[in-house]
Each structure stands twice: as C-alpha cells, then as structure tokens.
C-alpha cells in the first residue's frame, strides 16, 4: 500500500517536472522567435521618440551591420551546432550582432540625451543584460554555439560605436549644411530598411 502510494507521489512529481520543463522551453522558444522583431520594434520606438536624421542613420547602420554579418558568414562558413535546424553558416550570429548593435545605439542615445549618471548607468546595465539574454536564447535553442553568439555580440556592439563615430566625425556637418543630403539620406535609409526586411523575410523562409 505504501509502495503504491510512493510510486504515485513519485510519478506525480515527475509529471510536474516534465510540464515545468516543457513550459520553460516553450517560453524560451517563443521569446527566441520574437527576438527577430525586437530590433525593428526598438528602432521604431526610438524613431518616434527622437524623430531625427541620426536615428535614420542608425537604421541605415543596422542594415549595413546585417549585411556585414551575412558576408562574414559566407567567408567563415562555420557550421551551426544542429544542421537540421538551419542550413546556413552560423558564425557570427546575426541575431546577436543585430541585438548588440541596437544595445549600443540605445545606450549612446540615452547618454546623449540624459548624460552620464547613476540612472543611465543602471539602465545601460539592464539593456546589456536583456541583450545578453535574448542572444543566449540562440544557444539554448541550439541555433548557435556560444562562440558564434559571443563573436556576433562583440561585432555588433563595436560596429555600432564605429557607425556613430563616423556620423559625428564626418557626416553630421554635411547633413546640417545641405538640404539635399538630408533628403537623400532619409530616403536611402527608409528604402534600404524596407529592402532588408523583405530580403530577411525571404531568407528566413528559405532556410
């Protein structure tokens, strides 16, 4: 009698553990699928908040950053951990590269507007932590190795800093001085972003 009771309790505990694992895995898979839209949503919010040419420059940089990731994948040709999930190369992780490009953009924008203080420091740490979590999901879902994600994150963060340095050092004067440069820059950024969204959608469906 006691043996049957113990078996029932053990089975019930095992069932609860399995359900918890499936629930956790399901949440992580959902968040991972949503991460592909995270960058676009953040840029949309930033554009509504700032609505300036520098944000369009950042969007253009996001497209260039994604193209850089695609080129590097073709050159390095590093296999993913599970080839049956995705057939294209995995080094660097384009998700991590795009996420950390956006992380750097958010931190730079925040410091520009509010300066360096305790609040911006804590918020920056939180943004980096969120970016790290969404990037780590690519490892937990076995789309990338940890090295592929780490390389993508470093590349995206560094490229974002370089892209904004390029803006401040070389291009901001031309945008201020010439109206036609602002028009061409804004139109080019919008068209480039739309073309990238279409290409990314087709690329993801293919693989």
From TrEMBL:
Single GO MF annotation: hydrolase activity
Classification via SUPFAM superfamilies: Acid phosphatase/Vanadium-dependent haloperoxidase
Transmembrane segments: 30-49, 55-76, 96-113, 119-137, 149-167, 179-199
Domain of life: Eukaryota
The protein's name in its UniProt record: Phosphatidic acid phosphatase type 2/haloperoxidase domain-containing protein
Location of the Phosphatidic acid phosphatase type 2/haloperoxidase domain: 69-167
Keyword field: Hydrolase, Membrane, Transmembrane, Transmembrane helix
